[in-house]
Amino acid sequence: MPAGRSPRGHDDPFIAPPTKDLTRVLTADEHLQLNVHQHPMVLWKPVALLAGALALLVVVLSDNRLPLLVVVIVLAALGNLAWRVYERRHNSFAATDRRILRVEGVLNKSVPMMRLQKITDMRLDQPLIGRFIGYGTITIESAGQDQAVRELAYAPNPTLVFRRLNSVIFGEEHPDLAAPVRPAPARRAVSATARGMRRSADVARREANRAAGRTRLTQPQSPTPGQIGSPVADRAKHHFFGAIERPDDDTDEIPIQPPRTP
Hints:
Blueprint: H1 20-25, E1 32-36, H2 44-62, H3 68-90, E2 92-96, E3 99-103, E4 113-115, E5 119-125, H4 128-133, E6 135-142, E7 151-156, H5 158-170, H6 185-218, H7 231-240
Helix pairs in contact: 2-3
């Protein structure tokens, strides 16, 4: 099996496609058991900087002026966020059947690793907001003093990642390892809200269509040209059905009398 290939299958949500840097350090008979990127919450600082820069831009534009320094600040904050997103996609935490390792950096690369036999304990810490959004910190303890891999901050789905590490390192299988990943409470709340809004919009649209249909049924139809009040149409209709035109009853005719002879 090629390096970086997982025996668990391609659709494992906890084994992201390995980057080139990770593939280079794996041996030919080494198999990935875990490969995750940090939770998007790790980007909160560059996002906060960009939000502050945009707020400053709005304040400046309200005074009908746009200093060059403010434009530079906004562009720098936007570039910093784009770089952090790119860096997050290239950094990962991985575990194989032999060791755990981290891939860090884009320009200055670092790949610390630790063999599974050296790991003695692990700890999972998850704050309140982390439980709501779905991230945590996994701390790894080893028998030696120096640790190349100490912790995994902003771990996504931390409970399931912690169980997977326990299975890889200590051989502790859990019945929920093969269960589908359940989204974080915040994502479930957003999905439920979106579904409710879609249902409300569908109901409102159906009611509007039903009301428009009732209005069309109750509204009198205007006659089309040639139907009513058109002599040409009436005459054509009479001739078509063989009717004989007769003068109306209210027409006054003066009879013509023959001349008298003296």
